[in-house]
Amino acid sequence: MSPPNGAPPGNSENEYLPVPTSSQIDTKDLEEKQPLNDVVQEDEAEVVVPPDGGWGWVVVFASFMCNMIVDGIIFSFGSFLEPISQEFNVTKAYVALVGSLMSGFYLIAGPFASAVANRYGFRLVAIGGSVLAALAFALANFAMNVEYLCVVFGVLGGVGFGFIYVPSIITVGFYFEKWRALATGIGVCGSGFGTFLFAPMTAWLIENLGWRTALLCQGAIVFSSVVFGLLYRPLKPTKVQNIKEKDDDATELKMDPEKLPPLTKMKMEKALEAMKSESCHASQGSLNRVLGANNASYPRVSDVYHTISIPQQRVLDMSCYEKRLSVPFFTNEDSVKDVEGKELLLEKQSANATIVPTGERRDSTAEQEVNRPMYRDDIFFSASLTRLPQYTSRTSIAYNLSVTRLPTKNDIDEEKKRSCKLCPEAVKRTLATMLDYSLLKSPTFLLLAVGGFFTMMGFYVPFMYLVNRAKDAGMIEEYFGFLISAIGIANTIGRVLCGVLSSFPGVNALFVTNAALTIGGIATIFSGFSMTPEYQFFYTAVFGLSISTFASLRSIVVVDLLGLEKLTNAFGLLLLFQGVAAIFGAPLAGAFNEAVGDYNASFYFSGGLLLLSAVMCYPLNYINRIEMAKRNNVDNKSVPV
C-alpha cells in the first residue's frame, strides 16, 4: 500500500507499506520473535514477456485479416438496405436496425469475449466467434422478415463478430513490447483495407447473385477466420529466474528472508491474517460482490516483490499507483507464525488469495501454466509504450512485472483440475474488472463515456446512407461502391499517421481526437453541399481521416486521463456505451430521413452528434485536473493505518 501524498518516506525496503509509529510497535521485541527464514523459501514469479517478433508477425497477419473481414462486412452493410427493404416492403431505416444491431453487439460482446479469452485463450475464442458468425450468416439466408434478421444476423452475428474482434486487438499487444505501436498499427489497418475491399465486392454480389446469396458468400468468408484464429498461438509464461539468465542487466528477483526488516515481517503476517477474513473484498461494489472477484483487489507481481526486500532498487522501482494489499501467498502447506506466536495455516486462507509459486516445493498445482492476458494492465494499450512512464523508467523485465497481476488459488486449482464451471475464476475476475461501474463516479470518465456515446451514434451513419444518397442524387453508378472504399483508404492512412503521432510523448491525444472529430462533424454536416463525384470523394477522405483518430488514440486518451491501472475497467465500460449508441444511431438517422424526405437530414444528424461529442470533450483536461486536485487533497488528509 502506497503512503499518502505528503507522508514521510520510509526506507527503500518499506516505502510501499504503511509504517506504524514507534508507539505502536517495539522493534526490539520483533527482532526476538521467530524469524520467517524457517518457512519462507526462494520463489520464482512467472510472467509473460512479449518476444517482439518471431511468431508475433504471423499473429499480426491474422489480426489484419480478422479486422479486414469483420469491419469490411459491417461497414458495407448499407448495400443491403435497398434490396431487403423492397423484398419485405419496409423502410430503409427499419432495415438499418439489422446492421446497427450487428455493430452494437459486436462492441457490447467485448467485455464477455475478453473474460472468456482470459480463461480459454485467444485461439478458442476467435474460432468460436468465427463459427458462430458464419452460422448466423447461413441462417440469415432463410429470413422471412426483418425481425428474423435482427435476431439472427444482427444479435447472433454481432456477438460472433465481437468474439473475433477482441482477440484481434489484444493478441498483437501480447506479443509485442518494443514494436507494439507498429504491430498494432498494421493489424488495425485491416479495418480500412476491409472497408475498401468489401464495399464494391458486396455491391457486385448483391447485383449479380441477390442479397441472400451475397450473405452466404460473406458467411463463407467469415468462416475462413477459423484459420486465422488457429494462428493465435498462446505465449507461455516465463520464470523470472530464466529471464535473468538471458539478460545480463536483469536483477535476480529472489526473496531473501534475511534481509526482511522486523517491520516488514510484521506487515506480512498481518496481511496474511487480513486475507483470512477476506477483507480485500469489503470495499467492492455490488456487481463485484455478486461475481465474487475484482481484479483491482489483487496485487501485481511487483506489489508482491515490494512486500519483501529486493537487491538493486534501480531495476525494481515499481510504483504502485493504487492502494491495494500486497501479499505473497506460499503454496506449500507449512504454517507461519505471526509476531504474537499464533499459527496461521496457509491452507485455510481465502481461496481468492494471490499465489506466488515457491521454488523447491513446487507442487503439481504450481507447475500448471497459467496464461492470463487480462491480468495485464496494459493489454488494451495499442500505442507505443514509450508514452508510459512505467515503461520508460525501468527495464523490460521490471515493466512486465509491474503491469502483471497474479492468479488466485482458485484460478490455479481450476487450471490444474480442468474443471468445467459456468463462470470460472478467471472469467469472473475479468468481468468484475471490466464492468466495475464505480468508475462512473469519476466526472472525467463520465464525460469521456458520454462523448464516446455521441460519437458512435454518428459514426456508422455515413457508411449506411452514403451510397443511397448518391443514387437519389443521380450520381454515376460506377462511383457508388467506391465512395465507401474511399473512406476505407483514408481510414487506413489516418491510422498510420496516428501511429506516428502517438510515438511522440508530447502529443496531446485528446486535443488531436477532438480536433479531428470537429472537422469530421462539420464536413458531414456540409457533405450534401454538392453531389459531384469530386466533392463527395473529398468528403469521404476527410471523414475517413477524422474517424481514424477516434479508434487509434482512444486508449492513449484513457491512460492520459485515468492512468494505466484504470484502462481495462474503462475499456470495458466504454465498449458498452459505444455498443448501445451504435444500435440506435443509424436507425434514428434513417427516421430523420423518412420524416423529412431527404438523405441530407441523416447527415445533419450524424455530423451534429460528432461535433457535439468533440465540443463537450474539449474541457476534459481541465475537469481532470480539478478531479485529480480534489483526490490529492483527500489523500493528503489521510492518515496511515
From TrEMBL:
The way this protein sits in the membrane is described as: Multi-pass membrane protein
Task: Write out the GO MF terms.
Answer: monocarboxylic acid transmembrane transporter activity
Renumbered residue ranges of the record's region Disordered: 1-28
Keyword set for this entry? Membrane, Transmembrane, Transmembrane helix
Which Pfam families does its entry note? MFS_1
Concerning PROSITE patterns, the annotation shows: MFS (PS50850)
Where mainly found?
membrane
Task: State the source organism's domain of life.
Answer: Eukaryota
Q: Where does the sequence pass through the membrane?
A: 55-81, 93-113, 120-140, 146-175, 182-206, 212-232, 444-467, 479-498, 510-531, 537-559, 571-591, 603-623
Entry-linked InterPro entries: MFS, MFS_dom, MFS_trans_sf, Proton-linked_MCT
Question: Where does the Major facilitator superfamily (MFS) profile domain start and stop, copy by copy?
Answer: 56-625
Q: Localized where?
A: Membrane
**One GO location term (cellular component):** membrane
Q: What is this protein called?
A: Major facilitator superfamily (MFS) profile domain-containing protein
| UniProt organism field | Zophobas morio
